[in-house]
Amino acid sequence: MLRRSGRNTGLASRGPGRWVGVVVYVLLLLIVQGVLSRLLDPLRIPAPDLFLLTGAALAWRLQAVRAVVAAYGVGLIQDVLGGGALGLHAAGVGAGALLVLLVRRYVGDSGIFQALFTVLAATLGQWLAFLFLTYWLRSDLVTVETLRQTVPLALLSTILIYPFWNRLVTWGMGERPGPEDGLS
Amino acid sequence: MKSWQSLLLVYGGLLLLSMVATRLQVIVPTAISGSVAPVTRIGVVAADNLRRAYVTVVNERNLAGEVGSLRKQNDVLRQRNELLTREVSRLRQVMQITATQAPNALGIAQVVAVDPSPLLARITLNRGTDDGVRVRMPVTVPGGLVGQVTGVSSNRATVVALVDPESSVGVTLQGNRGGRGLAVGVSPDRLRAQFSRSVPVKVGDVLVTSSLGGVYPVGIRVGTIESVVPLGPNDVNRTVIVKPAIDVGVVEDVTILEGL
Q: Which of A98, A172, B74, B85 sits at 20 to 30 Å (Cα–Cα) from B145?
């Protein structure tokens, strides 16, 4: 039941079913992100960023500008839930979605490399935004140690969970359109 | 190209928004983030339960391993305890024998073989000349006399038990009641002793070794008179049947005494 028949050109088909899927997806996003964070934090392993993957999924499914705005919104929800400074994760997820749009535009492969580049681009965009905001705030938000220790593990854990999470995304948001559909 | 420019413009605007928000340290009211707490709590509780389940499984596995290890250790200790108990028993036997029978105990020996013949009563011990065992040395247990060494090799000694037909031992009545007799083995498990007619022997009397023969220390229990054979008109001695104090068939550890 995780896969819907037919290809869509945006989020899942219109109607009540679409919103049920989205609501269930959001609930699962909150719960699974909490579970993973709770399980991996004691091991000093950064949990995979499911909000970032959600932003990437939106970048694959929506028209470019909408995708970036929606991803920014997802990051904003992450900020609200985290109780931290508003706008930090929003900028990160938005930047991640922006780079995923590049992958969507230039990577034709639909297999493992596309998945790899998607996560890589999303993570790279997110941390570039973090770095920029760190510089902007003149704070120690991101340090060299963070870049050296946290980023590789965060990237790895996000890559590992991507295939599984992508199936849930497909169920919640529907199949993604062709590589360049909706980009113009 | 134009679309990418507009895209960058949009993101630039959003980034600007973030810059302002983070600079101004805009914090969301806790009431808003708290409204989704029940949902996030599900994740936390589920994760905690998962972790506890994992820890429990790991602990149980460790405990199972520990129990197995302790069982092995327990088996080893039981075995060692058995050996030590036997050793203590032997040492007590030696102490008892040196205190009650003879002070010159050579040492403890174990019965390693028993003569299978139903007519003979001989046992083989695991001590020999290397341990100082010599022929004619008495062999006893705390309960009484077993016999004497009749053959010895470097690490083995053969003992003729009292009930062997070739065995003879000088006996007297316990309690210094006098009388001197000679007891010989009678197959399969009795002795026959002869006393002079004047000795007042009766059923139930206990016989101990006497100095007759010069082999055994005096006073070691030999057996109990089971029956007194009626005197015939020409008998010069009184014959009694003696039940030996020691059942050679069940003896495990014996004490070898220095000969007189």
A: B85
